[in-house]
């Protein structure tokens, strides 16, 4: 017996957003109004499930990007030698680097929230919950540019904008593209008549349902990877009903070649050996569990 439409409709609902909005606004105001960062060029925005409207009940941490723009890092590998020489002649080394920005940001957050509420993690600065404020992961990062060509200093069409930072534990360089991720998700959601994000929430809730019943370990399928998985599903598999959509999506994924899957940002591959990629064996376990849940519902 397939999962009934009524259950899928319940799973499709978005989780609460009011508290996440207040948490984001509070942290944004604290950072923006700080004298420590006065004169520095940066921007603050949400990423993750709250930003992408794929949050479900039980999602807690609010992911906040604090992006330094006065200093940026770059990938010039796609440029010709002449373009690289032109670029080098027009750019000088930064005096205020990412590590300085991160240090200043930690100071700002500790001064306001207190050191006991601020913990520096491997990739983010964690702000613990208090007085109705949700826990937050603040990512101190710098602008990253993957150049496609180089025609001038201020031509934004020359590059894809991302973010970059170094991990605290391994000092590993990490690049991501949250703005492109968001824009691509919005586009696919529009093309699929809003069904794309509904189906992401259904898959995430089904994962939680299975985890609660010891049918699957939800840590093997983080939400970001589930978004990437469904992003690669062709648009015509998103149908008018949740039941039909889930049936078509599971069948399509069962036959698909995971090797060609990209992240929602379309800049990196979804599967691979890095910590920012999904282990294909874990993805297959998730898909197998989802198919079994569909086929065995009600038994």
From TrEMBL:
SUPFAM superfamilies to which the protein is assigned, alphabetical: Nucleotidyltransferase
InterPro entries: CD_NTase_C, NT_2-5OAS_ClassI-CCAase, NT_sf, Polymerase_NTP_transf_dom
Signal peptide feature range: none
Example of a GO biological process term: defense response to virus
Domain cGAS/DncV-like nucleotidyltransferase C-terminal helical per the UniProt entry, residue ranges: 183-295
GO molecular function list: nucleotidyltransferase activity
Polymerase nucleotidyl transferase domain segment(s): 40-106
Keyword Transmembrane helix on entry: no
Gene3D superfamilies hit by this protein: Beta Polymerase, domain 2 (3.30.460.10)
Keyword match Ribonucleoprotein: no
Keywords: Antiviral defense, Nucleotide-binding, Nucleotidyltransferase, Transferase
Name of the protein described by the UniProt record: Nucleotidyltransferase
Organism: Paenibacillus agilis
């Amino acid at each position: 017996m397939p999962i009934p439409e009524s259950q899928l409709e319940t799973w499709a609902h978005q989780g609460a957003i009011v508290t996440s909005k207040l948490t984001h606004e509070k942290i944004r105001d604290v950072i923006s109004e700080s004298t420590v960062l006065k004169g520095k060029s940066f921007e603050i925005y949400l990423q993750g499930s709250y930003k992408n409207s794929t949050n479900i009940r039980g999602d807690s941490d609010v992911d906040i990007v604090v992006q330094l723009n006065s200093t940026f890092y770059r990938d010039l590998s796609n440029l010709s030698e002449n373009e690289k020489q032109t670029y080098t002649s027009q750019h000088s080394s930064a005096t205020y680097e990412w590590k300085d920005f991160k240090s200043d940001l930690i100071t700002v957050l500790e001064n306001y929230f207190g050191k006991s509420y601020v913990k520096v993690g491997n990739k983010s600065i964690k702000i613990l919950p208090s007085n109705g404020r949700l826990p937050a992961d603040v990512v101190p990062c710098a602008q990253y540019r993957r150049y496609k060509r180089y025609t001038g200093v201020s031509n934004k069409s020359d590059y894809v904008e991302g973010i970059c930072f170094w991990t605290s534990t391994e000092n590993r360089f990490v690049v991501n593209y949250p703005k492109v991720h968001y824009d691509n998700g919005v586009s696919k959601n529009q093309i699929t008549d809003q069904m794309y994000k509904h189906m992401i929430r259904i898959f995430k809730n089904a994962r939680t349902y299975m985890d609660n019943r010891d049918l699957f370990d939800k840590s093997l399928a983080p939400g970001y990877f589930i978004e990437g998985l469904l992003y690669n599903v062709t648009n015509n598999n998103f149908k008018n009903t949740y039941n039909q959509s889930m049936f078509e999506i599971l069948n399509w994924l069962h036959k698909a070649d995971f090797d060609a899957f990209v992240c929602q940002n379309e800049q990196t591959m979804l599967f691979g050996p890095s910590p920012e990629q999904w282990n294909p064996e874990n993805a297959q376990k998730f898909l197998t569990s989802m198919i079994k849940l569909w086929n065995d519902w009600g038994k």
